[in-house]
Chemotaxis protein (Massilia polaris), 283 residues
Amino acid sequence: MAALSGFTAAETGLATEELEIELLLEALFQRYGFDFRAYDRQAIRRRLYRLMRKRGLATVSSLQDRVLHEPGVSAALLRVLSVAPAALFDDPEQARQLRIVLASCLRASAVPKIWLAEFGGAEEVWSLAIMLAEEQLHTRTEIYATAANEQVLAEAQHAAIPLARMAQCKDNYRASGGTGNLDDYFEVDGGHAVLAAHLRSRINWAQYNLVTDASFNEFQLIVCRRALPDFGPVLRRRVLRLFHDSLSRFGVLGIDREFDQGDAFGANYQAVFPHQGWYKRVA
């Protein structure tokens, strides 16, 4: 049959799996309202394999059956398809660049607003809040941390860091350019550390879907570095247009990589750092 059809068994299996993935993503959208259909297919496939291995499933179709009929599996799938949680100051070089951006782009605004779109867990947001405090900007800056997944939001709002992990967090903090005492930004509750209340009060947590929702405010800084790599070309263009519509003139956009040649809005931005994904909107 393979010889007659012109396809090898491997090609036929890959085509079948591709159809299974399409059906699963369509089921997620129709049943639960989460639209991953325009995400990069290889990124989706890697995450599906991870969940399938964990649950001992051989095919994507068997996963779809569990998602539709077994309580808890849909939540597990949505979590694995969402942005992976980040650790506090887990990317010191990016944090150093962000410190420079905060100092240069927010001081002129009376009440600056920052949008962390599809944030990578509470600790990414907390890292930003700490840097704002060190730049003396926290009392007048609002952080909007958004995610499409309600579970991700709930985890972030109730997050805490085990005290055993704080030593590593302090190493990352110092490597990111932090010069203070990291403990000063936290409250200890039992065996865990939680961001201080006066810094948490500047964070607005909200459910927001980059795939379907419209612009909801004007921001002086928009950061989306962890989710964009998962987006396919069409969705990426859609999201970059959304960010353009939401960013004030002379505001800064932080994305995962440089603009592609021919990006519709690339001419409206000026690079902040060479060969990095930080841009100031100039038009």
In short: The CA atoms of residues 219 and 243 lie 9 Å apart. Residues 9-32 form the longest helix (24 residues). The longest strand covers residues 247-255.
